[in-house]
Design goal:
The complex is a heterodimer of chains A (158) and B (771). Chain A has 158 residues and is of the alpha+beta class. Chain A folds into 2 domains: 73 residues, Beta-grasp domain (Ubiquitin-like (UB roll)), CATH 3.10.20; 70 residues, DNA polymerase, domain 1 (Orthogonal Bundle), CATH 1.10.150. In chain A, 32% of the residues lie in helices and 13% in strands. Chain A has a 5-stranded mixed beta sheet, with helices on one face. In chain A, a hairpin with a 2-residue loop joins strand 3 and strand 4. The radius of gyration of chain A is 15 Å and the shape is globular. Chain B is of the alpha+beta class and 771 residues long. Chain B is 30% helix and 23% strand. Chain B is built from 21 helices and 31 strands. In chain B, helix 16 runs parallel beside helix 21 and helix 20 packs across helix 21. The relative contact order of chain B is 0.12. Classes of the chains: A alpha+beta (158), B alpha+beta (771). Chains A and B meet through helix 1, strand 4, helix 2, helix 3 and helix 4 of A and helix 7, helix 9 and helix 20 of B.
């Protein structure tokens, strides 16, 4: 069985699994990292959104063989460490606005929000309506409004 | 003072209840979820001829059903000064663990963060008292939970007085510390063991008056929010159970299809990671090292399928069945000059799929079984699983996990039953999860229905309102049926079927519209159905409110003032006035845009919603990939009166969610039936509200307490929002919508996924779509 090595939340990990198994299952079923959620396995609901080298990725659509030994995979569990704090400012903003209801989609929402802010910042602007239209993450509880209210003030805090 | 003391006994006696101190090593208190603990209901004050639901509604029935059970709910005060409570209800996002913790914090005078609320395993001795539905949790547990907490505080005060050598009347509790007049104090941690009892005692306690509340009625953040945002919140599929490997089912191409034979079981069993393949009642189960490999195995299975139960069915055939079954409206002779408005509305199938798909962990042994799942009727689940496995009920343990949304779905325990069957068949523990595509196609759907409404009016009065609601049957196999049977003698309706009973207990007309009749007819067939964040109300009330707009127009009145003039209840008028004022009802709107306003009474509460909608081509034709944009609700204002909002911030969240649901079922989301299966198989096929459909402006106003007791909240906003959006759409376009969602008959906005294999493979292009 092939062996795969990558950096997961700051730690190098090696896992023996077939090449085509998607990263979501490698993390959840083999490594016990359960922050990224399954919502469709089709790259549609985006509940599994995590970061690879700082960019948002739907890891249900990434064969583990696509991940290189030096690639840094960050899940919600590893997000605070990327800013050296106990909570990332986006997580704190989520708490301030009391965003979560059932909470199932929220790890993916937060990971998507952080990447979206960084993407806009790289383009030299703040988040606008067009950016929100690109956040495709489903929240079946309908917390979309509080998500917007959390992201807007948080975007200047990291 | 003499006047005050003269009134006091009545006031205090209404707040006096019986609690229990249980024999235990640390202070453990309890209260009965029953007659001893439930306060008398306030007198109904409804003018005019009341409908059954005005007098006694579904929630009264759910509450009364709990009166007969002599079972206790227990709060434990831990030696570290925290309090623990296992809530016999199911948290699926509605915020009941937080509101329950607030009730305990209030009566116990303990900081909220020192109260831990977990979810109780199935407790069969609670009989009817562990069903989470009908927005009933807070209504039925409000008093018992406070009685238990007050019992604990009283016991702690007594222990502190003894320890400090002062009279009981001299000590007082604040934030988990009891203080004597001389400043000496003891914490609850120091008193927890000392306050314990060697024998079980029954004690009388007095609850705080509302004027002394410092927690109830204040906005509080959810107690589980930190776990949610850090990924630590554990859902069923996150629970580690030794040996419970992933499992999935290969399902038939059509609803209720059956396995005739499997051609390649051996080949599939030898696939990478796969440990077992077994035929079960709903398809072919596979178990493997990862869910990814289970998906591969499901797709590789070659199965000969038998026909399903609805293979010839389409939207059109079901609609024809409903039309044929519809009961006529017989209007009595009316005065001359009476005019009528008569319309029929169609509400298509919709999916109550939550983001967490159906799932459960099962470890079935020869003489016992253990289940982990988010189920809202855990006792029924336990009984059915025991029956299916041929085990005594006591040999089956059902652990209730945190739920990733429900919307009606988790009233059923389809995945738990299936997981138990698969675990038994394979002789191994399994972590069974439905694929998203299965969850839409084989999961439960809110039934298609039609609603005919006929209203007559003359000389400024509405004389009659008749509504004939005809629906594909809604399944109630989750325990509600037994509750109704056991309370039947008390119900103000007689001789009705189960669903007719529920219909009559839930459906109200908030207006004085003369002679009002509302009747339900059901067409029973082979669909898997269930409620969807309410049973009938969003459809029934949306139809009514559209007719109300038509009546207002025909009688030359403004929709807001017309409603105001005919509303029966002052609480309804108050929420309507509030949204009209905050939402600037009647402001000038650009062509192609309009306001809509509606009201909805239910669950001892009232909600009013005002929306503004934009139906201009520029908005309707916005291009977003793989999406339905369409008309956009640009603003929503909601005012809600639930009698007493335990947690206004949580109530606000429930209203926001309900509004998103109302927008979805009016404008974008439905299931299309064709060839015996639903075409939708992904969230880019089933168009639930997304960021691009969300109103940029949203305002929720929680009204000050009115009745002093909490009403239901989880489902309340959906009907009001649906009706307001539909009315706004009608006003913006000049045509009253009669089919919901409004885009249902347009060409499909997606290409349906194949049915064989039943589930799609996961894409491999994730990295190329990184951002």
């Amino acid at each position: 069985m092939p062996s795969h090595t990558f950096v997961l939340n700051g730690q190098q990990v090696t896992v023996d699994v077939e090449d085509d198994v998607r990263l979501l299952w490698v993390l959840r079923d083999l490594l016990g990292v359960t922050g990224p959620k399954y919502g469709c396995g089709l790259g549609v609901c985006q509940a599994c959104t995590s970061h690879i080298n700082g960019k948002a990725v739907n890891i249900c659509c990434v064969p583990v063989s696509d991940v290189q030994p030096t690639d840094e995979v960050t899940t919600i569990e590893g997000l605070p460490a990327t800013v050296g704090q106990e909570l990332h400012p986006m997580q704190q903003a989520w708490l301030d606005m009391d965003v979560p209801q059932c909470g199932y989609c929220q790890p993916g929402q937060i990971m998507a929000a952080v990447a979206k802010v960084l993407q806009a910042r790289a383009a030299g602007r703040q988040l606008g309506d067009a950016d929100f239209d690109q956040i495709r993450n489903i929240c079946r509880c309908g917390t979309y409004h509080r998500i917007r209210e959390a992201i807007l003030p948080a975007q200047t805090k990291f | 003072m003499s006047t005050a003391s003269g009134q006091q006994p009545t006031e205090v006696s209404r707040r006096r209840f019986l609690g229990y101190v249980l024999a235990a090593s640390t202070l453990t208190v309890a209260a009965q979820l029953g007659e001893g603990a439930v306060a008398p209901r306030a007198e109904a004050a409804v003018p005019g001829v009341p409908e059954p639901a005005d007098l006694y509604d579904l929630n009264d029935m759910l509450t009364d059903a709990t009166l007969a059970t002599a079972s206790l709910i227990t709060i434990t005060l831990n030696p570290d000064g925290t309090a623990s409570f296992a809530l016999p209800r199911t948290e699926v996002g509605q915020g009941i663990t937080t509101s329950t913790a607030m009730l305990i914090a209030e009566e116990l005078d303990l900081p909220l963060d020192k109260v831990q609320v977990s979810l109780a395993d199935a407790r069969p001795e609670l009989v009817f008292n562990q069903l989470t539905g009908g927005s009933n949790t807070t209504i039925s547990t409000y008093t018992p939970v406070r009685v238990a907490a007050a019992t604990a505080k009283q016991r702690l005060l007594e222990a502190a007085a003894t320890e400090l050598g002062v009279p009981l009347s001299a000590v007082s509790a604040l934030q988990g510390v009891i203080t004597a007049p001389d400043g000496r104090s003891l914490s609850y941690a120091e008193l927890a063991v000392k306050a314990a009892s060697l024998t079980t005692l029954q004690v009388s306690v007095t609850l705080k008056p509302a004027s002394a509340f410092s927690v109830i009625g204040t906005p509080q953040n959810r107690i589980d929010a930190l776990d949610a945002v850090t990924g630590r919140k554990q859902f069923a599929m996150d629970v580690h159970v030794a040996g419970a490997m992933p499992a999935m089912i290969c399902r038939p191409p059509t609803i209720n299809g059956t396995v005739v034979s499997v051609q390649n079981q051996g080949v599939v069993q030898a696939m990478p990671g796969i440990t077992d393949v077994a035929v079960v009642s709903t398809g072919v189960a596979v178990r493997g090292r990862t869910f990814g490999q289970c998906i591969d195995a499901v797709r590789a299975l070659q199965v000969t399928w038998g026909p399903g139960s609805e293979d010839a069915a389409t939207d059109a055939t079901v609609l024809a069945e409903l039309r044929a079954a519809e009961n006529p409206i017989v209007t009595p002779p009316l005065p001359l000059l009476t005019e009528a408005i008569d319309a029929r509305f169609t509400f298509h199938f919709a999916s109550n799929s939550a983001l967490e798909s159906n799932c459960a962990v099962a470890d079935v042994r020869s003489d016992s079984a253990e289940i982990w799942a988010s189920v809202k009727a855990p006792i029924t689940a336990q009984e059915e699983i025991a029956a299916q496995l041929g085990l005594p009920v006591g040999a089956v343990t059902v652990h209730v996990t945190q739920g990733g949304g429900s919307f009606g779905r988790k009233l059923f325990h389809d995945a738990a039953l299936e997981a138990a069957e698969v675990s038994k068949a394979m002789g191994k523990p399994v972590r069974l999860m439905w694929h998203r595509t299965d969850d839409f196609r084989h999961g439960r759907a809110h039934p298609m229905s039609i609603s005919r409404v006929r209203a007559t009016y003359s000389l400024g009065q509405v004389l009659t309102l008749d509504q004939r609601h005809t629906s594909v049957a809604t399944e109630f196999g989750h325990g509600l049926g037994e509750i109704i049977t056991s309370t039947a003698a008390k119900l103000p309706v007689g001789g009705l079927t189960l669903s007719e009973t529920i219909f009559s207990l839930t459906q109200q007309t908030p207006y004085d519209f003369g002679v009002t009749t509302q009747l339900l007819t059901e067409v029973d067939n082979g669909f898997h159905t269930g409620s969807m964040r309410n049973i009938y109300s969003p459809n029934v009330r949306c139809a009514q409110e559209l007719i109300v707009d038509q009546l207002a127009k025909a009688m030359g009145q403004d929709p807001y003032h017309f409603r105001r003039n005919f509303l029966k209840d002052q609480r309804a008028v108050a929420v309507l006035d509030k949204v009209a004022q905050v939402g600037h009802w009647g402001r000038t709107m650009a062509p192609g845009t309009a306001q809509g306003i509606a009201i909805h009474p239910e669950y001892h509460g009232f909600v009013a919603v005002l929306v503004e909608i934009d139906c201009t081509p520029a908005t309707v034709n916005r291009q977003i990939p793989d999406a339905v944009t369409g008309p956009r609700v640009t603003k929503a204002v909601c005012a809600v009166d639930v009698g007493l909002a335990v947690n206004p911030k949580g109530l606000e969240a429930q209203m926001m969610g309900g509004i998103m649901d109302g927008i979805a079922v009016t404008l974008t989301s439905s299931l299309h039936l064709n060839g015996g299966y639903f075409q939708e198989g992904s969230w880019d096929n089933y168009f639930y509200t997304r960021q691009w459909n969300t109103p940029p402006e949203l305002d929720v106003i929680v009204m000050p307490p009115t009745t002093g007791t909490p009403g239901g909240a989880g489902e309340l906003a959906v009907a009001g929002a649906m009706a307001a959006v539909a009315c706004a759409y009608g006003r913006a376009t000049g045509t009253m919508p009669t089919t919901f969602p409004i885009n249902h008959d347009a060409p499909l906005a997606f290409t349906p996924l194949p049915t064989v294999p039943p589930i799609p493979q996961s894409p491999t292009d994730g990295l190329s779509r990184a951002y």
